[in-house]
Write a structure and sequence with these properties.
Layout lengths: L1 E4 L5 E4 L6 E4 L12 E7 L1 H4 L7 E5 L8 E5 L2 E6 L13 H17 L7 E5 L33 H18 L7 E5 L46 H17 L8
Parallel strand pairs: 4-6, 5-8, 8-9
Antiparallel strand pairs: 1-2, 3-4, 6-7
Length: about 260
């Protein structure tokens, strides 16, 4: 999507790959054309074409598994998200399972790639802070303008189970890694659970008290309690990535901030 060139001979590339595995909208078996089909055991062809060019790859995914899609494994439809026409048969794979499988698939493809010997960093599942509903049912983080204090963190069941599946996929891929490839987990899920104030949602209202009010149509105002906008969160992720790279490529020394 974007390439940034620096005079120091460094290039940073941002590539969009929503699920990190192969996806298509073509008809497949009893899944009609139009709906997204995810081949959970096949890495994203578009992404993999770039792999040999890089020294470091940072992967981040997960929340797109909440979207309407069909899951295919071993060339067989095994489940879906917001899609399952055969109510007489249980799904074999739900969206949480699909996330774990996809994580193992893409990481395994990288650590066994014959022409990639670089460092792969997996960014853990990003916590959201919707209260009183989900992103599309009136959930809000309005009024959250300070980080949580110690002891105030509220556990999110869905976030925790997605993180668990992701770590399982990481650990399975790690067992396949060769000495020529490196794989690291950048686990931010707990510490950034405290940053419910760092999303765009609380700052979209000019009301100084940030009170959520429903509009004339009775619907709540749009909220974004998933992405990050405030200083601190993403800046810290960048610092962590830089430290991982330093340790891997400069002799694993202890670097001061």
């Amino acid at each position: 999507m974007h390439r940034y060139y620096f005079k120091s001979s460094v290039m940073i590339v941002r590539i969009w790959s929503s699920w990190l595995v192969r996806h298509t909208t073509e008809k497949f078996d009893f899944a009609s054309e139009g709906v997204t089909k995810l081949h959970l055991d096949v890495s994203d062809d578009g992404l993999m074409g770039f792999i040999p060019q890089f020294d470091v790859i940072v992967l981040s995914s997960g929340h797109w598994f909440a979207k309407h899609s069909v899951y295919i494994l071993n060339n067989e439809i095994v489940g879906g998200q917001l899609w399952w026409p055969d109510r007489s048969q249980p799904m074999k794979v739900n969206n949480v399972d699909a996330f774990g499988i996809s994580t193992e698939t893409i990481l395994s493809a990288l650590v066994t790639h014959p022409n990639y010997t670089g460092l792969t960093v997996l960014h853990s599942f990003s916590p959201d802070h919707y209260e009183g509903g989900a992103w599309n049912t009136g959930g809000s983080c309005t009024g959250k303008v300070k980080p949580l204090a110690a002891g105030e963190l509220v556990e999110n069941g869905f976030t925790n189970v997605m993180h668990k599946k992701q770590v399982m996929g990481f650990e399975r891929a790690l067992k396949k890694a060769t000495k020529r490839s490196k794989l690291r987990l950048m686990d931010i899920i707990e510490v950034f659970g405290y940053r419910h104030d760092a999303h765009p949602g609380p700052y979209r209202s000019r009301d100084p008290n940030k009170i959520t009010k429903r509009g004339p149509d009775g619907k709540p105002p749009p909220q974004d309690c998933l992405h990050w906008c405030m200083p601190g969160a993403v800046d810290t992720w960048n610092e962590i990535v830089l430290e991982i790279i330093r340790r891997e490529f400069e002799g694993n020394r202890d670097f001061s901030p």
